[in-house]
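Re: How this chain folds, sequence and tokenised backbone to follow
How to read it: Take the token row as a discrete description of the fold.
Start of record: The labelled sequence and token lines come straight after this line.
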Amino acid sequence: MAKNAPPRRLDDAALSDFLSEHTFGALATLKRDGHPHLSTVVYTWEPESREIRVSTTEDRLKVKQLRNDPTASLYVSSADHWKFAVVEGKAELSEVTRTPGDAAGLAYLAAQRQKPDDEAEFLETIAAERRLYITLKADKLYGTALDIG
């Protein structure tokens, strides 16, 4: 690598692969005063639909902020921080599961990649936690990599 080489822009395929390889990121939502609020989240990337999915609970500040303004971004960095990706778009909130086995809970269960051993217990737990999904639809992807020696 040449000294002081500029960052290499990642194309759409490389960004999608990078997002698929990771599970942690920082979700930025907007406070009422316009400043960003950042939350560390565990996410899944759905490359076919170009969506980020985050499980959360109804009482989280990010949920309240997304109800006020659905604009959001997710920042994901490599472990060495020489590569990153950003997903920008509008977020949608699923229904909150409130009663074990309600429609929202069954939809949440259906979205699980690994099915729980005890579905009834799972449905009770997510209803008690008032779980829902944030789905961030990617309007824009961007990121770079520094090819450090």
In short: The CA atoms of residues 80 and 148 lie 10 Å apart.
